């Protein structure tokens, strides 16, 4: 089991001493959040199958503490939109995003979800960032599980850096307001 | 429809004088999907339930409608291959090959035997991936996740073979009009041999976990059944029809790509229920392995593509040095191949049934009209009839055993 | 209905007594899971371990240069035509005197942009290119993006660096 | 087989009722008038020899240049026992694209007809639930008709002047 | 008063210790569940949060605490909050009567390693277990969501049904021991006379019922993901969800402890006398406590092992198994045990009962079922 | 704390929650208050040193019967019907019935002399399992058996009533 090449999540920088460990709450919370991101797989098409690969034994998203899928939006931390989002589906995606509890991140997986991909058609939404704020885009059609993991780790980085107060700040509110979310 | 509207509408009360009718008082509606885990994110079913028993169901589809047929009217023939990838994405090579064969039929290209055998191998590998996912997801929906992960490892292995052949895992864009774009590499052959040797053990293990497990059998036997007559009336094809007892298999009835050379059985069920669908798919995987084995044993020597310079891209070196090849190259890429005016239909046995391509060509660079006959779209409409009177759990199991692939359903 | 003579009926089969008592499946299933419990995991620990991508994997795009360091692309536009996603756009320009070192052909792409979010990595551009200029490299994947502004790759990111030349096994 | 079918159809519906005969890779195609569709399919369904009891596909099609016959429907029947396929085509003017429904005979025609309605606006009279199936209910045109563009108007990132697109 | 104080402090400290052990075990059960599942599925499981991922439960806990607390509109606020609290409360209360060990004397203070030794101990367990469903029921109803409600209703009927069989299987034990006190039951099993030898059938019934009462696969219908999304906790987020998940793991641990108490001799372990002679009574008692916790953890492993192996039942099949399978079987077991007590040959009769049962099934199968099939 | 104080506190709680059972608008709340009432009564049993009764009370009433009540109410509550307003006649009839019941109860209490419990004659083991068992199986054997037959008959009747036509699921 033990494999020295594994990079364990780094302890937050703090002052270490005998029985003394101080760090700012933000870092600790960020670290905890980053290692316990429960995804909500909004899988509609091909990318959903690659997400299954990501979950399966060969790639094992569980290594990042994310094998507990939350199909209930309330419990999820990362909304992973995988696959084409048509204009018919768009309100549903937005609804799911609204139902999620803060803090929430959005990972847009695959060409279709990011930009519409080859489906530059009357019925396909040209990128989900037209309806909800997206944190990380993963290119590919479908992306390899490696790329999905890359995207996931990018979300982890964001979670680590994020201040616990960010979600109350006016910038964040303004971002949501630009999408018509109060 | 009208009854459901009655139940949903608070302003219209139920007729209380009507006693013993199908709509007794405690009916409720349950919205299954589109974000429900069992509907794989794309289908919506509004179920009218009496307790946990389903009284009626109304489906909504089209949540990932992407206008394939419209796109196909604006793209040159060879670019449509990328569309077919995304139709039944669980078994993309079958779609690719089916489309290529359709166009070859229109253009009148004769494909050499080796290419045909290679196609058969890739198509049967695709069928394996399709059925692996369908059957193991059925097990997952009954609650047994682990078996899914055991067989999924082999699906990953098949992906590796795809990668050797075309460079992608899922949306393969494999092959060209007139054959394959490259020959089997030694690595690919080695991997296929390994698969033939080791997949049976994994399949046996999976079958051991669920196939004779009473919990699983109770969950699936006599659930979501459909009679052969109704199945035909609903236009079922593929494993779902065969489970009902009709041995309609395009590979056996209208052999294409040298399927007539191979020994294989067409498994049929007896009752048409979920367990039969499971068994038929399971048996088809064994038959696929048999076909691949035969094709590998008898793989003919020769060219892997047709000698059709008008339609098959020349080698890169020739393009650079040979004027004629360069002209063909430009014509093919610009889509200005000389397609005849005509109308063809070609169907292949896809993962879910008869996957047909109805191509109307007016001689232009794009199809005039391309209609995909998607088996999923056609048989999914029988779902309400199949689940009526069963419980919510049965509905979910039935849905996953039907293997409705959204990409195929909604195009 | 019997349509072909290849029919093979799969029988559901009645449960035996032991099967009705749930025993063999539970014991067998638990034995299977226990066996896997002690077997070696197949997981590839991705960021540290890389999976073999295959010799022709369709990954990151690259615009090749020839041995002298001149760009091969001649801005013929076939790749853009072949692209089903319409992700490639380019502006062609005539090669001027003294630029022979930079561009191999008389015409070259002044601007060559690929929208990485549109691209579907189908490999049609690679097939379409008559000059063997654009390739999808087999050893590298496109990275993830944080914002929409980064996604259009220009020539700065696409053209091959001479110190890190891309070579493919069994180069045709 | 195909000759027999033509003979039987012509005997039943007269020479003028069955026209546009053709064959493509073994598949017979016939064209008929809209009012003949249901009787013809019924006839073929119930015929003791032909037994066209499987509706493989139903496709709409649009020919903007054929005046008075703009919209067509192709019925793709399959006789499983004889392994014979047959296309029946019928055309109607775009102003009045009324076709009879065959949902009474084939349950599977339900969604196929809804799809044809959704894409082409072909109206199947007597259909139990003729509403849009794949597109949104709010859509106010039938997108597969040739005059409507494919592209979404909101895409910004491509240069349209390139190479004739 | 001084005496009372010391007893009180001893009790309080013991309860505190048990509380901490329970919480710790429950927290780490989540980690081990993930790891065990991963190994069984040829994966690795969490390995990024700390070495081997052992900080995973902490990460989950901190995340849940910091997550937005969400109370859906149109829901009943007080009941919505009460649901998880009740679940947690009832899960923790059961451990009060589990004897974790013999009396322990440390520094002149005598600790009784049991929360309360009441003469109705096993009824207490039973009563609390039957109350456990309120948390789920209330939470599921208060969420104002159909899936939650379905989950709650399933939980209620499932728990009530399986309580019956569970109670009947316990009665056989009570008949043998002649007391309701858990302490007395454990003491009757000392020196290797574990009840599993006398009550194999009763144990199996109890085990199955324990699975059902803990809502674990194959009886996890109230929360099964593929059918009900999250079941009764679909609408819960943040720590309220944490409470529900936690309660499930606590229930598993405690039911493991109860099973060890009832059928596996509680804190008894082979070689008690030897250890007592060599290391003294204190060490022996502490090892006994460890033995009980070890047995309970072994049961937790079995819970997880089964979960990652078997599919789940359908609703009516689950009811059928409970009402027409387990309850008659438990009744049969009661009769057999009565016979054993009468004849004073309990092991023989216990094993004989199993043999007779199997023989009866075979005969029935041969006579009736085969005939019906033919 | 004095035992009598606990008794007063418990009794007050019991009365309060019992009142709330009647007064609560939401049937679910009523049921929950009823459960709470049972807990208070169980507390009284503990005060009387009748632990067995307390446990049985919780198991049977709070744990099983009230769960079923809750279950049934939730099932019927699926459609969230507004309770129909009662007509004046029902209200009148209700008050008449309740009033006469009250009169009868008060008359009963007035007619009978209750023994005051003697503290020194109190046997602490009366409520224990062993004594209960002995009394049940000796002195009250006949009533006990009769009650069991009654329950059995009731059970069979319930099964017969609850069973629908063959082929239907009984959920």
From TrEMBL, chain B:
It is found in: Cell membrane. Its EC number is 7.1.1.-. It catalyses: a quinone + NADH + 5 H(+)(in) = a quinol + NAD(+) + 4 H(+)(out). It comes from the Bacteria. Keywords: Cell membrane, Membrane, NAD, Quinone, Translocase, Transport. NDH-1 is composed of 14 different subunits. Subunits NuoB, C, D, E, F, and G constitute the peripheral sector of the complex. NDH-1 shuttles electrons from NADH, via FMN and iron-sulfur (Fe-S) centers, to quinones in the respiratory chain. The immediate electron acceptor for the enzyme in this species is believed to be a menaquinone. Couples the redox reaction to proton translocation (for every two electrons transferred, four hydrogen ions are translocated across the cytoplasmic membrane), and thus conserves the redox energy in a proton gradient. NDH-1 shuttles electrons from NADH, via FMN and iron-sulfur (Fe-S) centers, to quinones in the respiratory chain. The immediate electron acceptor for the enzyme in this species is believed to be ubiquinone. Couples the redox reaction to proton translocation (for every two electrons transferred, four hydrogen ions are translocated across the cytoplasmic membrane), and thus conserves the redox energy in a proton gradient. This is NADH-quinone oxidoreductase subunit D. It comes from Aquirufa novilacunae. The lineage of its organism: Bacteria, Pseudomonadati, Bacteroidota, Cytophagia, Cytophagales.
From TrEMBL, chain C:
Its cofactor is [4Fe-4S] cluster. Its EC number is 7.1.1.-. [4Fe-4S] cluster 1 binds at residues 73, 76, 79, 129. Keywords: 4Fe-4S, Cell membrane, Iron, Iron-sulfur, Membrane, Metal-binding, NAD, Quinone, Repeat, Translocase, Ubiquinone. Its main location: membrane. Residues 64-93, 110-139 form the 4Fe-4S ferredoxin-type domain. It catalyses: a quinone + NADH + 5 H(+)(in) = a quinol + NAD(+) + 4 H(+)(out). It is an enzyme of class 7 (translocase). It is a peripheral membrane protein. The keyword Signal does not apply. It comes from the Bacteria. It is found in: Cell membrane. Pfam families: Fer4_7 (PF12838). Binds 2 [4Fe-4S] clusters per subunit. [4Fe-4S] cluster 2 binds at residues 83, 119, 122, 125. InterPro entries: 4Fe4S_Fe-S-bd, 4Fe4S_Fe_S_CS, NADH_quinone_OxRdtase_chainI. The keyword Ribosomal protein does not apply. NCBIfam families: NuoI. NDH-1 is composed of 14 different subunits. Subunits NuoA, H, J, K, L, M, N constitute the membrane sector of the complex. Belongs to the complex I 23 kDa subunit family. NDH-1 shuttles electrons from NADH, via FMN and iron-sulfur (Fe-S) centers, to quinones in the respiratory chain. The immediate electron acceptor for the enzyme in this species is believed to be ubiquinone. Couples the redox reaction to proton translocation (for every two electrons transferred, four hydrogen ions are translocated across the cytoplasmic membrane), and thus conserves the redox energy in a proton gradient. This is NADH-quinone oxidoreductase subunit I. It comes from Aquirufa novilacunae. The lineage of its organism: Bacteria, Pseudomonadati, Bacteroidota, Cytophagia, Cytophagales.
Automatic annotation (TrEMBL), chain D:
InterPro entries: NADH_DH_suC, NADH_quin_OxRdtase_su_C/D-like, NADH_UbQ_OxRdtase_30kDa_su. It is found in: Cell membrane. This is NADH-quinone oxidoreductase subunit C. It catalyses: a quinone + NADH + 5 H(+)(in) = a quinol + NAD(+) + 4 H(+)(out). NDH-1 shuttles electrons from NADH, via FMN and iron-sulfur (Fe-S) centers, to quinones in the respiratory chain. The immediate electron acceptor for the enzyme in this species is believed to be a menaquinone. Couples the redox reaction to proton translocation (for every two electrons transferred, four hydrogen ions are translocated across the cytoplasmic membrane), and thus conserves the redox energy in a proton gradient. The keyword Translocase applies. It comes from the Bacteria. The keyword rRNA-binding does not apply. HAMAP family: NDH1_NuoC. It is a peripheral membrane protein. It holds the Pfam family Complex1_30kDa. Its EC number is 7.1.1.-. Belongs to the complex I 30 kDa subunit family. Keywords: Cell membrane, Membrane, NAD, Quinone, Translocase, Transport.
Automatic annotation (TrEMBL), chain E:
It is a multi-pass membrane protein. The chain crosses the membrane at residues 12-31, 78-101, 121-143, 164-186, 192-212, 241-264, 284-306, 318-341, 347-369. It comes from the Bacteria. InterPro entries: NADH_UbQ_OxRdtase_su1/FPO (IPR001694), NADH_UbQ_OxRdtase_su1_CS (IPR018086). It is an enzyme of class 7 (translocase). PROSITE patterns: COMPLEX1_ND1_1, COMPLEX1_ND1_2. The keyword Hydrolase does not apply. GO terms for molecular function: NADH dehydrogenase (quinone) (non-electrogenic) activity. The keyword Transmembrane helix applies. Keywords: Cell membrane, Membrane, NAD, Oxidoreductase, Quinone, Translocase, Transmembrane, Transmembrane helix, Ubiquinone. It is found in: Cell membrane; Membrane. Its EC number is 7.1.1.-. It catalyses: a quinone + NADH + 5 H(+)(in) = a quinol + NAD(+) + 4 H(+)(out). Belongs to the complex I subunit 1 family. HAMAP family: NDH1_NuoH. NDH-1 is composed of 14 different subunits. Subunits NuoA, H, J, K, L, M, N constitute the membrane sector of the complex. NDH-1 shuttles electrons from NADH, via FMN and iron-sulfur (Fe-S) centers, to quinones in the respiratory chain. The immediate electron acceptor for the enzyme in this species is believed to be ubiquinone. Couples the redox reaction to proton translocation (for every two electrons transferred, four hydrogen ions are translocated across the cytoplasmic membrane), and thus conserves the redox energy in a proton gradient. This subunit may bind ubiquinone. This is NADH-quinone oxidoreductase subunit H. It comes from Aquirufa novilacunae.
